[in-house]
Amino acid sequence: MSLLSPSSFFFLSLLLVLPLSLASSYPYKASYRIDCGSATSTTDPFNTTWQADDRYYTSGATSIVSEPLHFRFPHEKTLRYFPPSSGKKNCYIIPNLPPGRYYIRTFTVYDNYDGKSHSPSFDVSVEGTLVFSWRSPWPEGLARDGAYSDLFAFVKDGELDLCFYSFATDPPVIASLEVQQIDPLSYDAATIGNNHILVNYGRLTSGSNQWGPGFSNDADDFGRSWQSDAASRSPNAKSSIKSVTTRERITNTNQPPNYYPMKLYQTAIVSSGAIQYNLAVDAKLDYLIWFHFAEIDSSVTKAGQRVFDILVNDKNVTRVDIFNSVGSFAAYSWHYVAKNLSSTELTVKLVPVVGAALISGLENYALVPNDLSTVPEQVIAMRALKESLRVPDRMGWNGDPCAPTNWDAWEGITCHPNKDETAVVISQIDLGSQGLKGYISDKISLLSNLVNLNLSTNSLGGTLPSGLGQQSLVRLDLSDNQFTGSIPDSLTSSSKLQLVLLNNNLLEGRVPEELYSIGVHGGAFDLSVVYICCIRRGRNDYDFGLPQDLMSLSAKRNRYQRQKSLMLLEMESQHAKGLPTLPLNPR
């Protein structure tokens, strides 16, 4: 998938965000408006409250734009940025959202807030899918004025993850964030499904100036803002186009599932010649194009008086007779999916057949397929490990551990698709010598695809969790820590174990004989340099003796660690540099 360029779909002029003005009949109430970087709640001139930026973010710092007077609203003047000390991946995580579809809008601005005259390069993801890509240098107007961008996405797990991924040392920035619940069946979700994000590449109103939330007091239940279509029309056709408007009531508006406002259909453009739009897009994606019409010319009184064809990239996709479909002064919408575009321009043309062509509005959305995400129970495990291991902010353990898949996974983590390639699983955790000071959460048992676990040379303590020892586990290195207690029996459950290093800890109790058998089969098992050591008692058990028995431990180790292959000797010699990578299939 090609990266989505801000210049393709962002509003490049300074836009104004107004309240969502939900009608009393509108049933979807979950919403957030966050003034990123603000220490206090703010209220804009339209009496909309923006809550303080005192929660939901994973890390970062705050600042203000260099020219506050250049911006009209408080939520455009403050920002949150994520310096390198916050890690490469940072997120806003919005909790307690009912599962469903959401309208999400951000305002992004640089305005030389840091005095470095270097607009940053970074990516933005929603629910683990890459949606926006900012690349330095930004166009001058965009860097100074900022831009709003929006999309529609499904939230399935009760929380929304909006994440930022930095490039080199560039700190990502965000000035405001809006989240509004919308009808889950909107935009033909029944056909398209809930496995795509709809990224706005143009939401146009015909025959009108900009309006809606962000431009005027005109309401839109979803919070959509509508731009004038004038800049998107082909220059060759502008001279023959006329604007028409009405104050008459338009029926079929503000209705589920799309809740289109009446104002959209009270203006239009008409032309006796072709009306053509040239829309900037990114190649290799599908686009959902939504057309809006209303017959607001009272002289059209029957079917057949106004008929025109719609062509998308010169392909005739339908013929429209508005009066024949819905009569006069009634809203009519039709949509079409343009698939796998090979060009960076999408052309839409309305060609008259009888009378003049007419259009009230046009929407264009990129259908961005949801990226693979980490298996939910493994996300739970990794978040628990983040807390129990006290992973520092600099490692960027935020959002989904493995998604988007075209970003690097969390630092020290390796991921792979599962067998049927419907999700991603954790196959390796390599956190040796990271200054960790916590303990191993028992949620580690949920990492059922874990092949390699290296937590060596830290200051971890506590007991080893009973769930440690997944069937998939091949290499385990917990050496040079402060673990106490006994070795859990679960560690013997993996028949694939080739390396177990537990030396330099404070372990005690029985040692299952199965672990010693690893050495017999050419693997390595090391309990050396512990404070207490092994004495044979029964057939399957080893108890720990006192430190003076170290010589007997050494003899016993030699008994079980027989002839070793050159590969194993090399593996042990590299232990201080981290566990080796073996050609294993983690699936």
Q: Decide which structural class fits the backbone.
A: mainly beta
Number of DSSP-assigned strands? 36
| Oligomeric state of this protein | single chain
Assign a percent range to the helix content. Answer: 10-25%
Strand content: 25-35%
Overall morphology: elongated
Average pLDDT reading: 85
CATH superfamily (homologous) name of the largest domain:
Galactose-binding domain-like
Second-tier CATH architecture of the largest domain: Sandwich
Q: Rg, please? A: 30 Å
Major sheet attributes: 9 strands, mixed
Separation of the first and last Cα atoms: 25 Å
Overview of the structural elements:
This protein is mainly beta. It folds into 3 domains: 25-182, Galactose-binding lectin (Jelly Rolls, Sandwich); 200-370, Jelly Rolls, CATH 2.60.120; 376-541, Leucine-rich repeat, LRR (right-handed beta-alpha superhelix) (Alpha-Beta Horseshoe), CATH 3.80.10.10. It contains 8 helices and 36 strands. The two termini are 25 Å apart. The model is unreliable at 6-24 and 529-587 (pLDDT under 50).
Summarize the structure.
This protein has 587 residues and is mostly beta strands. Helix content is 10%, strand content 32%.
Topology:
Elements: H1 6-9, E1 31-35, E2 42-43, E3 49-50, E4 61-64, E5 78-81, E6 89-94, E7 100-108, E8 122-126, E9 129-134, H2 140-145, E10 147-155, E11 160-166, E12 173-174, E13 176-182, H3 189-192, E14 196-205, E15 227-228, E16 241-245, E17 267-271, E18 275-280, E19 286-294, E20 307-312, E21 315-320, H4 322-326, E22 331-338, E23 345-354, E24 357-359, E25 361-369, H5 376-388, E26 413-417, E27 424-430, E28 452-454, E29 461-463, E30 475-477, E31 482-485, E32 499-501, E33 506-507, H6 513-520, E34 524-526, E35 533-536, E36 542-545, H7 550-560, H8 566-573
Parallel strand pairs: 14-15, 27-28, 28-30, 29-31, 30-32, 31-33, 32-34
Antiparallel strand pairs: 1-13, 2-3, 4-5, 5-12, 6-11, 7-10, 7-13, 8-9, 8-11, 10-14, 14-25, 16-17, 17-24, 18-23, 19-22, 19-25, 20-21, 20-23, 26-27, 35-36
